[in-house]
Design goal:
The complex is a heterodimer.
Chain A: E1 4-6, E2 10-13, E3 19-25, E4 31-38, E5 42-51, E6 54-57, E7 64-70, E8 73-78, E9 87-94, E10 104-105, E11 109-113
Parallel strand pairs in A: 2-11
Antiparallel strand pairs in A: 1-3, 3-8, 4-5, 4-9, 5-6, 7-8, 9-10, 9-11
Chain B: E1 4-7, E2 10-14, E3 19-25, E4 30-38, E5 45-51, E6 56-59, E7 62-67, E8 72-77, E9 86-94, E10 103-104, E11 108-113
Parallel strand pairs in B: 2-11
Antiparallel strand pairs in B: 1-3, 3-8, 4-5, 4-9, 6-7, 7-8, 9-10, 9-11
The chains are: A mainly beta, B mainly beta.
Chain lengths: 114, 114
């Protein structure tokens, strides 16, 4: 079974702090994604990566950066956390070789910025 | 603009009853449509995936249908159980936009009461 893990289930940070969210997948998938999920808005893509050290901006990249130094690990960085970044953050992975490019999601990190 | 709309936004049913959730999309052409189940505070888990040429797919008590002519999909849940209480998300992948493009609906929140 594919497993996508995220470093924290719950996180509370202060405004202005630098925040790291880590995601690891164990199925050698090429593609990895970071989404945020807010009530009534659905999942919105922040960044995705299709290979090591490669990244592309999604729909809402402002205030975020990412790092992919190893194929299995994709990190989301909030350079200076703000209260409007309080949200549920979901990591996902997929492979072009999979049927219909199915995505597998991690359990999510609920981030609160105070 | 590619959009995915789901209805109803929320639904309450009694245990043992059937229900149907709707998904309308404007994505065209598309390569596949999926339904995910997301328990509260967890990541989405895939229920069904249908390519544009399929019109029905089952997974236990869950049956998804697709009408590509009217751009509608439905998810039918038979003999509901308390564990079906969750959000159900419809996701459409546009054809020809790479392996990373997914358009998410905002979900239907289902509550099953004893």
């Amino acid at each position: 079974d594919v497993k996508v893990t995220q470093s924290s289930r719950y996180l509370v940070k202060r405004t202005g702090e630098k925040v790291f969210l880590e995601c690891v997948q164990d199925m050698d998938h090429e593609n990895m994604f970071w989404y945020r999920q807010d009530p009534g808005l659905g999942l919105r893509l922040i960044y995705f990566s299709y290979d090591v050290k490669m990244k592309e901006k999604g729909d809402i990249p402002e205030g975020y950066s990412v790092s992919r130094e190893k194929k299995e690990r994709f990190s989301l960085i909030l350079e200076s956390a703000s209260t409007n970044q309080t949200s549920m953050y979901l990591c996902a992975s997929s492979s072009p070789g999979l049927v219909s490019y199915e995505q597998y999601f991690g359990p999510g990190t609920r981030l609160t910025v105070t | 603009k590619n959009q995915v709309e789901q209805s109803p936004q929320s639904l309450i049913i009694l245990e043992g009853k059937n229900c149907t959730l709707q998904c309308n999309y404007t994505v065209s052409p598309f390569s596949n449509l999926r339904w995910y189940k997301q328990d509260t505070g967890r990541g989405p888990v895939s229920l069904t995936i249908m390519t544009f040429s399929e019109n029905t797919k089952s997974n236990g008590r869950y049956t998804a249908t697709l009408d590509a002519d009217t751009k509608q999909s439905s998810l039918h849940i038979t003999a509901s159980q308390l564990s079906d209480s969750a959000s159900y998300i419809c996701v459409v992948s546009p054809r020809g936009e790479g392996t990373y493009k997914y358009i998410f609906g905002t979900g239907t929140r289902l509550k099953v009461l004893a």
